[in-house]
């Protein structure tokens, strides 16, 4: 088991767009295993490579009875239904806020062997796919909160025992929510 430390809010790697994976090699297999072990140990529904300090487009997930990993993922919306519900993040430990997400998405990417993968998710799995893909774009879920909730969330984060004092940054996602960012 190779559990790695999770990078916390304020770490610049969490605000940097991750690079595409080009080599499906032993190091990638090790990264996927480290992501899986760390996600499992921390009790997360998903974990993205930047959360371990690795700037590659890879994430693992385990929720709603589904588990796996996606490399170089992209996703598209199915239908127009939205969900607004509690969301948390291993990089913002112990805190959750209601966050608006698409209800149903289909993600496409590759597995660690270079084989194409498609994952269709609703509810929590759809939320997880969107959340982890945002991580790969340097976006955190607090960026998606409405203005009032985000202001309150950033205040709570600044007062958290684990926060290192860096000024919180808000970033827009390249994945719009029907014109809502």
TrEMBL record:
Name this protein carries in UniProt: Peptide deformylase
Cofactor, free-text remark: Binds 1 Fe(2+) ion.
GO biological process: translation
Keyword Transport listed: no
Binding-site residues for Fe cation, renumbered to this chain: 89, 131, 135
CDD domains xref list: Pep_deformylase (cd00487)
Active site: 132
EC number: 3.5.1.88
Coiled coil stretches, renumbered: none
Cofactor(s) needed by this chain: Fe(2+)
Enzyme class, broadest EC rank: hydrolase
Keyword Hydrolase in annotation: yes
UniProt KW keywords: Hydrolase, Iron, Metal-binding, Protein biosynthesis
Gene designation per UniProt: def
Chemical reaction(s) catalysed: N-terminal N-formyl-L-methionyl-[peptide] + H2O = N-terminal L-methionyl-[peptide] + formate
Function: Removes the formyl group from the N-terminal Met of newly synthesized proteins. Requires at least a dipeptide for an efficient rate of reaction. N-terminal L-methionine is a prerequisite for activity but the enzyme has broad specificity at other positions.
Similarity annotation: Belongs to the polypeptide deformylase family.
Molecular function per GO: metal ion binding; peptide deformylase activity
